[in-house]
Amino acid sequence: MERDAIRVTVWNEFRHEKVDEAVRKIYPDGMHEVIAAQLRAQKDLQVRTATLDEHEHGLTENALAETDVLTWWGHMAHEEVRDEIVDRIQARVLEGMGLIVLHSGHVSKIFQRMMGTTCYLRWREAAEKERVWVVKPSHPIAAGIGPYIELPNQEMYGEHFDIPDPDDLIFVSWFEGGEVFRSGCAWARGLGRIFYFSPGHETYPIYHNPDVLTVITNAVRWAGAAANTAVLPFQAAETEPLEKLSPKSLQ
Amino acid sequence: MERDAIRVTVWNEFRHEKVDEAVRKIYPDGMHEVIAAQLRAQKDLQVRTATLDEHEHGLTENALAETDVLTWWGHMAHEEVRDEIVDRIQARVLEGMGLIVLHSGHVSKIFQRMMGTTCYLRWREAAEKERVWVVKPSHPIAAGIGPYIELPNQEMYGEHFDIPDPDDLIFVSWFEGGEVFRSGCAWARGLGRIFYFSPGHETYPIYHNPDVLTVITNAVRWAGAAANTAVLPFQAAETEPLEKLSPKSLQ
Amino acid sequence: MERDAIRVTVWNEFRHEKVDEAVRKIYPDGMHEVIAAQLRAQKDLQVRTATLDEHEHGLTENALAETDVLTWWGHMAHEEVRDEIVDRIQARVLEGMGLIVLHSGHVSKIFQRMMGTTCYLRWREAAEKERVWVVKPSHPIAAGIGPYIELPNQEMYGEHFDIPDPDDLIFVSWFEGGEVFRSGCAWARGLGRIFYFSPGHETYPIYHNPDVLTVITNAVRWAGAAANTAVLPFQAAETEPLEKLSPKSLQ
Amino acid sequence: MERDAIRVTVWNEFRHEKVDEAVRKIYPDGMHEVIAAQLRAQKDLQVRTATLDEHEHGLTENALAETDVLTWWGHMAHEEVRDEIVDRIQARVLEGMGLIVLHSGHVSKIFQRMMGTTCYLRWREAAEKERVWVVKPSHPIAAGIGPYIELPNQEMYGEHFDIPDPDDLIFVSWFEGGEVFRSGCAWARGLGRIFYFSPGHETYPIYHNPDVLTVITNAVRWAGAAANTAVLPFQAAETEPLEKLSPKSLQ
């Protein structure tokens, strides 16, 4: 059980914080720094950050090779993420890197790529109340969370949410305006684990909410737990028989 | 229950049959014609075929718009399938078209696109025995099939198979050489339904096997059943609240 | 496709209607008669009813043997259902009979038996609004239903709902009082298919709602589709090897 | 992450070892002692054993209250397990205790109770080869295991295996005699986690195999991870609205 620390890269588009005063007030150093601060407080996690405008979006081959779990927040600049970086992230997820996709990352290139669907949803920005209910309390991502998390002001994300059925549906949200949403969903893809968590609109202080931070921390540990597997990265492999085959007659 | 016929397009790469005498002996008119003949014998199905070398691979906008279920067999020319046609097929699946992917279609562009994974697997061509076991007998795709289907000579496809967990795992195969394989897997994606079925190597008369044909026929009906839904194709939709929102104070 | 009609038994506890004037006003002949009338209007269904106070609750060996799908509504008299009848229903489900459990049937003996969990939930009777959202629109049980069904007055059933993860989660409900609920859930058990649908409190005219009736009709067809399988009922079976075993040395 | 040790109770029927010389040679102190020795070597686990012939089968209220994960091996005396003890175990699983069911425990009262199905399967005792393939390599229960585990002599357990679809299918076995089997299956039930693992016939030294012991150790940690949840044990709970309800008109 003395395992190495889980190496986390907290990725943020980091644009709203530069152009929108209201967002900067909530996240003066960018929302990645608030998320990273929470994770840095955990002894078993080793944390770095990366943002869109860095060289190769801060996600070089080396950087990803040394990342066990990548968290992703993007919104206004999804299209600026370069396709070859998306290819690289996908390959690393399939090799075992965890991927935590937050809020508006639902239509990021990487999430759509991993899902195979549009990931479209209904939405509305009206500062309304969201209540995030636990529906799979046995899941470690829900550890320490009560029956629900209440967020007084949130952007509404509603069904139908065009995703593959999750392997585990952990949270379902209620919205004041009348909608529901599958707000916490987990999947395995290749050797990697993916978790989508919808709370997080940039104009409300969602990532200052302790329960939201607990869920993200739990998710990082859950996704990082998959990075130890002994199975090699996938390849289409021609393989010798393990048993003696009978003589054939195919004439 | 008086519904319109399910409109099926049987797609085949149709190359092996032109260049390989052994394959032509088994499928003189192409394997699509053998599959189509089986489906044409069903009163509730309306069947056409399409192949790679036709205009737009036989999959024009119109052709796809009039297809409820598309079956797919490809192998040596996956790379020749044009990306814009793959985009088009993906969009139609998400709108509700069924997709039945056969055998070596596991690494077709469209299947990898829908899955988000490599879909790689172990393989071996040694004419060995495969026994396809039913593991979800309540599923309509298994209707009429006994405990297993035995195929005396097959290409081996073995685990690990790099796919998302299926919504329904219906068949698991045993191979003489010592491997197992999740050989019949069903998923929903968007409004569409996808079924992968691994039997079908071109050098063995797999698509002349009555049980294999029954499974394909069942799968077409199962996937076609989803094409009637009243929900519109997906769009990212900003939406008015259904309930009256409380006054907010976000200053 | 010319299959025999699906034989449905609509089961009702039929007690509230006898003792509660408000319920009798909504369902003068019992709610089973309203559900049965809907199903009798379908050409492919053959319908009978059964109630708690009949001999063997109307569920004799013969009656169940001739039932492809059983719908179940109970509430105030769950404990009066005899255990040997519950055993009999369970055995028939495992043999392939469909089971549609409605509303307060969530704590019926048969549903708890099939699930292995308490099936407990939060509840409140306050005539509040429920909005039943479609979350798996590709599923045939959702056919013909729009984005949601709105029920102006319903008993609240809320999470956490102590059930096994459904094979398919088709509906999730929003409640005016702030809760969400997995209101339409499908499972396979043995050769049979089970669907739970929560709308249906006896003091509101829920089973007069056309969308609710459509869902029940769809569910009966979906569950009835499993009744044709060729696999025999289960038995623990010692079995001869299908392949020649190698000589062993276990000394 | 400084969490308390996971408290494990290794339960064994402990009858074969007393009456069958061949079994005693392999497991002189009972197979529970071999499993317990492996688990005792882990710093994060605290281990005790219990057997059928102890008072209350060694599973008193107190003993279970202090158990985070229970492992179960039984075969010849399933019927002697008292029903009130089965009730007690079920209640503890739903409260969050993990349950690891081994081999012939597939028809134990507690496993059938949790599953709701017969759990029947095909079987044959012929000392044949089993190869346990990993099909979900991202799952922590597969950590440290290569593509497969090979067991030279095993009892055959084959499909169809009458269980609910697992939440996670982790292992699928190949048998020399021609069958396949879903040999490693995980479910959540209530707040608890259940893992079934089929290797383990008493007349072969299966629990001396290092890979088999690794899987059991992984499974104990995985199931124990669920025991920390903050959600209270389930109860059917009438509950006040979280939102103000609108005035109703139900006249």
Overall description:
- The structure is a homotetramer of 251-residue chains.
- Chain A has helices spanning 16-19, 21-26, 31-40, 61-65, 83-95, 109-115, 210-224; strands at residues 6-12, 45-51, 69-73, 98-102, 122-134, 148-158, 168-175, 180-189, 192-197, 237-238.
- The first copy, chain A, is built from seven helices and ten strands.
- A nine-stranded mixed β-sheet of chain A has the order 2-1-3-4-9-8-7-5-6.
- By secondary structure, chain A is an alpha/beta fold.
- At the A-B interface, helix 6, strand 5, strand 6, strand 8 and strand 10 of A face helix 6, strand 5, strand 6, strand 8 and strand 10 of B.
- Strand 5 of chain A pairs parallel with strand 10 (237-238) of chain B.
Shape of chain A, please?
A: globular
Report the average pLDDT across residues of chain A. 92
Runs of chain A in which pLDDT lies below 50 for 5 or more consecutive residues are: none
Q: Oligomer, anyone?
A: homotetramer
The description of the largest β-sheet of chain A is: 9 strands, mixed
Q: Could you tell me the radius of gyration of chain A in angstroms?
A: 20 Å
Strand order of the largest sheet of chain A: 2-1-3-4-9-8-7-5-6
Biggest interface, residues from each chain? A-B, 50 and 50 residues
- Total strands of chain A: the figure is 10
Structural class of chain A: alpha/beta
Helix content of chain A: 10-25%
